[in-house]
Structure formats: structure tokens, C-alpha cells
Amino acid sequence: xxxxxxxxxxxxxxxxxDRVSASAPTPIDAETMTKARGIVESVRTGGEAAxxxxxxxxxxxxxxxxxxxxxEDLAQAAAxxxxxxxxxxxxxxxxxxxxxxxQRSTLTALDAEVPGGRAGHDIAPVTSAGCYAPGGRYPxxxxxxxxxxxxxxxxxxxxxxxxxxxxPIMLAAAHVAGADGFLACGGAQAIAAMAYGVPGRxxxxxxxxxxxxxxxxxxxQLVFGAVGIDLPAGPSELxxxxxxxxxxxxxxxDLLAQAEHDxxxxxxxxxxxxxxxxxxxxxLAIRLADLSTRGVAEAALAHGFAAWAPSLDEALSAxxxxxxxxxxxxxxxxxxxxxxxxxxxxxxxxxxxxxxxGDYGIGPNHVLPTGGAARYSGGLSVFTxxxxxxxxDLEDPGEACRDARDLAQLExxxxxxxxxxxxxxx
Length: 426
What we know:
Elements: H1 3-6, E1 14-15, H2 30-58, E2 68-70, H3 71-80, H4 83-105, E3 110-114, E4 117-125, E5 128-132, H5 141-154, E6 158-162, H6 168-177, E7 181-183, H7 187-196, E8 207-209, H8 214-223, E9 228-229, E10 237-242, H9 248-259, E11 266-271, H10 274-289, H11 294-303, E12 305-308, H12 312-322, E13 326-330, H13 334-339, E14 346-349, H14 355-359, E15 386-394, H15 398-410, H16 414-421
Parallel strand pairs: 1-12, 5-6, 5-8, 6-7, 8-9, 10-11, 10-13, 11-12, 13-14
Antiparallel strand pairs: 2-7, 3-4, 4-15
């Protein structure tokens, strides 16, 4: 029976549209950042002993349990999982790989004329990457595939996967993705280990990517500079934008699919049909009653909201203020609605294009910017692992010499001026 019928508080709290922007999550809180900094520094300075201690304390690893697994371990795990599971991983990996390859093909080397010669760029992958896959509550092989397959598609030479859940299906997914190793711990300690390395056991990587909780997100911010990172990818978010054409049961199903990720996940509904909100609340209550992940999902629903918008334009404006990670467009004209929006991580056009398909490797990546970061960042892609390296080859630098000299003199940088002048024809 629905909350509206029983008189209980709605599963998805109602807020007014003018409160949408105020509902946006705050950056990583100071306490989490301080504690994460201590963990990161402990691993950086304490090496394997510190990592083992933290893995036992925070990840539940036991004394003597291996933290560093190699390709042979991954291959053995793959041999031990059911054949249909391995086939599923291979199909998913192939779709991710083909989409990444198609993206890569849109970026090409450049060779262009400039005064006195030529300039351009070439494209090279980073040499190594650490791919984080959450797994504190459930093993998430999809995140292993999304990150590691994409890194390999970019041409990364060495790929390490880290996760707090070294379940056989996680190791098998790492094998299918072509990972070189697996670090069986999670949280800030795993990010630090990949970024700084563990002497004698794990070489540092050039880039750390992947989604995670607030500890992972904080640690990625802390190690940035020592390594590259992809984007803020914290607790999951979904905005369902719905009009009178939306199916309330499908809307409820999509909201619960996000809610079960994490108690800190944010399932959000913005509807232009006020009656739809009540119908969705009813379906949420019915679906939640039989959901095996009910405890997590119910907590996440309490962190979300439902808001009514008097018009589609006002609803779209509210979506742009949120800049959500996932955007499900359950409206009569989803392509038209998308064309009016500026900020979202990934859009799912129409009820048939459910966000769950994005989670499970139909092609585009599911590692996406959260917390409003879609205002300045896109999701993980093959481009994340690529570097654009420019070059310059001048045969006749006369014009460049004179302009560089004059600009250097304006900036009072005499050494620059002399370096340019020395190349003027005598």
C-alpha cells in the first residue's frame, strides 16, 4: 500500500522547484577530507605495512590474505566462473571496446601550416592507469569492465584494477578486460597505493580513474598532481524528468535502480504533471516492498526529492541547475528536451533507453561526473587516457622571432627576447 494511502511520509520527499538548486550536494566534507588525507599519507610513507594494516582495518582483509594479485590469478578466476558469466563479460567488454574505438577514431593527428613552417599534434595514451571499482556492498564487475577495457582501448600499456571486493567475478572481469594486476583493497588506501606505488609490490600509475564513495573521491582529489585523475565520480545521481506521458511504474523502477547503489545515492524526480508524482510514490512503495536491497534504497530515497514544475522549460532550467550525473528523459519529445539542456553527464532518451542500460555496458561509459561536476566535465571515455602532444617545426622563423622578441620586451623578459633575436637571420 502506498505512503499516500497510509498517510506516512512519502518515500521520496516533496520539495518546491525553487529549492532544487539548494538541494545540491556539498563538496566533500572537511572531516572526510582530513581523515582521507591521513590514510593517503600513511600509505605514501608507510608502504606495504601501512597498506596491509589499513586493508585489514577498513576492508576486512585477513592476516595473510593476498592483496596483490597477478595475471595468473585473474586467469584462474576466469577459468573457475561459470561459462555463461564469462561469455556475458566478453559481450559487454566487446560493446565497451567498440564504442571506445569509435570515439578514438574521431580524434586524429594534426599537421598544419604556420608562418615559417609547420605545427601540429600527435596523440599518445598515458603509459599506466589504475582503475578503481567499488564493491563494498556488492561486487561490481561492470565497473571493472567500464574502466579497464576503456583504458586498454586507448592503448594504455599497464592497467591495474583495485577493489575492496576480490570476488571471483571481479577477478574474472579484470581478466576479460586485460588487466595486468588486481589490488584487493578499496577506499582512500587503494587510491594512494596506485598513485604512489608500494615499493617492491606495485609500481605507481600515471592516472587513477573510476567511481567510488566519498573516501575514494576525497583521495582522488588529494593525489591529483602526483597522478592524473578522471573526474569527481562520487555517490550516484539520477534525475528523472517526466511529463504526463510517462509511465509511473517505469519511473519508480528507474529511481529504485539508482537508490540501491548506496544510501548516499540521490534519486530525483522533476515532473510537469503533479498527479504523476503521487502515482510514482505509489509504485515506489509497491516495488520497494519486494526489493532485496530495500534498506539501502529506502535510505537513498530519503536523500532524494520529487518536485513539480509548472512547465517543461522551468523543469529544464532546474535540471541545468543540478547538472546531474544521469538524466532520464521520460517526456514526449526527449530529443527536443535534450537540445535545450547544457549540463548533464549522460542522457537517456525516452523510457526505452533506461539508465540501467548505461550502467551495464551498452556502449557509453558509466563513470560520470557527480555533484554538479557535469558543468565542467564529461564522463570517463577513451579520451581520458589520451594526451594531445603538440610540436613545432620552423624552417624560416623570421616573423616568429620578431613577434616573440617584441612580446618578450613588453613583458620585460629580456632572456626570452634574446633567445628569439638570436634566431633572426644575420
